[in-house]
Amino acid sequence: MTTTPDPATAAQAVFVESAEHAGPGEAPEPQQQGKQKSHGQFADMWRRFRRNRLAMAGLVVVVILIVLALLQPVISPYDPYDQNLLNTLASPGGDHLMGTDALGRDLFSGLLYGLRLALLVGLLTMLGSMTLGVTLGALAGYRGKIADGLVMRTTDIFLAFPFLIGAILVVRTFGTGVFQVIIALVILGWPTAARLMRGQILALRESEYVEAARSIGASDWRIVTRHILPNAIQPVFIYSFTSIGVAVVAMASLAYLGVGVPPDTPEWGRMINMGIEQVQVAGKDFLWMFPSAAICLTTLVFAFVADGLRDSLDPKLR
Amino acid sequence: MGKFVIRRLAQAVMVVIAATILLFIGLFVLGDPFASSGDKVVPPETQAILREKFGMDQSLPMQYLTYLGNLVTGDLGIDLNQRRPVADMIGAALPNTARLALIAIIIDVIIGVVAGIIAAVWRYSFWDVLVTIITTLAIGVPTFVIGVWLRQTVSGVWIFPQVPRSFTELAPWYTEVLLPAVTLAIVDAAFIARLMRGSMLEVLRMDYIRTARAKGLGERTVIMKHAFRNSIIPVVTYVGISIGILLGGAIITETLFQYNGVGYLLYRSILQNNNPVIMAIVTFAVLIYVLLSMIVDILYAYLDPRIRLS
Amino acid sequence: MTGSADIDLDGPPAPLLEVRDLRVHFKTDYGTVKAVDGVSWSVNEGETLAIVGESGSGKSVSAMTILGLVPSPPATFPSGDIFLRGRSLLKMPERQQRKLRGSQIAMIFQDPLTALNPVFKVGDQIAEMVRTHQDVSKHTAKKRALDLLGEVGIPNPAVRINQYPHEFSGGMRQRAMIAMALANDPHVLLADEPTTALDVTVQAQIMALLEKLQEDRNTAIVLITHDLGVVASYADRINVMYAGRIVESGTADEIFYSPRHAYTYGLLSSLPRMDQSRQARLQPIKGIPPSLARVPQGCPFHPRCTFATDACLPQVPELMPVDGAGHSAACVHSDRVAIAYDERVTQ
Q: Transmembrane segments in this chain: where (chain B) (predicted)?
């Protein structure tokens, strides 16, 4: 969050006198000017990103979460599926860090397993919908005409279904399972990425440097890969972080509604459902608090990272 | 302008037709509501009788056309469970959902636009920082989790009815609708506030704002007339889209609060494989979305005269 | 100056608009930006004063300060004042200042496309200007807008009045801006690069229009531009600004035919001239204007100056009278400049 006052920009706004020299003349950063040229745009983004404390904190937690998910088989104190009907609804503390659920399963182990599942689904969904969306969006944007019409009308159709409802219908059609959930989320998620990509390409296709590349006879392939994609990809890159959060919540929502993963899977949405619908014993709030906090934390940190990236891409908007 | 509306209308009709075909295939071809599944065993003879009764023995294109024809005349079919007309079921649930969506939108637009304007106009002030912090948090927290927490902590307190519901006690509608509406509104309000802030900041940098000030207009007129009309355009687009998202989100929010709306009905129908009801509700949702995005486009053209020409 | 209605009885007549030792500074992370640093000038009814300088020389900030549109903070005004008929503008409360904006002092801007609000009809924007300062009905204001559009030479004003800015061409938009600025017959018109964004043929039309309107109304025009060529035939007086200061001031003839500051010399040498029989070789000024947060020591122009010697370094040269009554320059080498210019012109 860059909320510190920045009088330089305010002063600069007053200084815009004519279009010719507006810019570095008024707010001197002599050392950085030379640097910026030698660095790539992602290096530049990273430099600004690092200064954003909230985003950096988010990134650190994201990394911790990924490490935890990878180490889950090793650090999980119990088998998340192991039931112990003699020790159900145990409160947090003692042998069970976060207590046990209605079937006597260790909640902490379940949460870890749920984390692994959530990140797996989030990442694969992101990769799937980004690959599909970026390819088709780029095709539509650059080729125009028939390809554009075809892709855009298809996205219209998919976007006409509310995200969650569409996902439920797809999972219902293909059956229960993690893989099916991913498929459903990709089917519902790619049109957004495609639209984003297409918009970027359309804007860049008419830009002067692309015209220049075209005028010296660069091939379509070279123009797209060298001149358009690197510039168009940034917003898509940012959106990919947002989309991981979206996928994590979507899976939890589906599971809460009883669609998607098998009922006994230690999945956050299932755990919440069990905590608030099936167990209605006073004082057992930890059953839904821990998994909902886990969802919250995961989406929050991904949102912080996405936010930080957005700001580092376009610092003047904050 | 007329040409623009007609072209947009044709596009909308195409999308609805394509989406319903897709839906039809998904529901009736890939999933057979009468097939045996798990421990539910249905004898083949019974299946045949049921299929005939619900018109599913005919060819698919025929079924689809029949459905479309019925849809136009307002006949949504009969539900598979209790043989009630689907139209009646939706008719009972729809006002509740409409009320929910409307109240949620009123809440989020008012809060979002006001907060966004305040944050932009008094940039870097205490209020701006506050808005930035709250929106950053609110956008990261999923509606689903907000709903869970509100339900578990606030329901049953003060005027808010207890969830899970006791079916003997009837709460007045305005107490029932509040918590789900707030749940739906929080994230959206944060989005709108942010959108409004960014858009307002951008507009305030424009030359025509300087012109307005140079005219000797008061700051209030400069912001509420010259800047507002320009900066509200992206918000209008977003609200249009968000109504669609709201209806999609209503399934989880309504289910969480056991609110008798279309979303809760859809959830129960999905659990019961009640295909005609699912088909009708999703078709309805698609129609609403397509209609809304069309209205947004037209409104957009009205707000920004530059678009009208192209 | 003769026939001014507002002569102050207690003393000599105050100029219509006077800027006295004005300083506008901005505190930034990179140091204090001295956008305007001790500038004085005045202008009277019917006069045209040109302020010429590169971008970042502080000329637009002076204009915005006159209108009271420089936000403070971050701006500070360490010294100086601005007087409209002897009344201080800087000390005036905002509410009163606002009443002057658009009625007594109006402004037109460089880019007429972005300076007009895209979502309101051109006629409504002009009518708004009228209704902000005059208590008239909507209908009367609209009628006035129609007359104004006709006066600034927009064909078919009855149709144009109901169109949006994007339906106007660049020149037409600037005419509409001028119509808006003149809606309340202001005494002073600040024109900030009014022709820079326009085609060359349109530039001349706009300048001619401004001149004609000025004659009709006896308006004082402050013409801010980076282009000496534009002001040549229109300005009565020219102030050349560099790095927040006036470096040379004089009549158009004095500036064009006997420049006494090295910077003015540089500007003229980089300008194609048609008033000279043999065209001297064009010589651009080397380098770029300094950042206003780090103005070089001594004469701010010396790093780019072909005349510079050690004499330029110790202090900032003061604006000193050179020849003639009103001609002054802030240059240590003003005599060498004069000689060099003569040689250049006659070579």
A: 12-31, 100-122, 129-150, 170-196, 235-257, 277-303
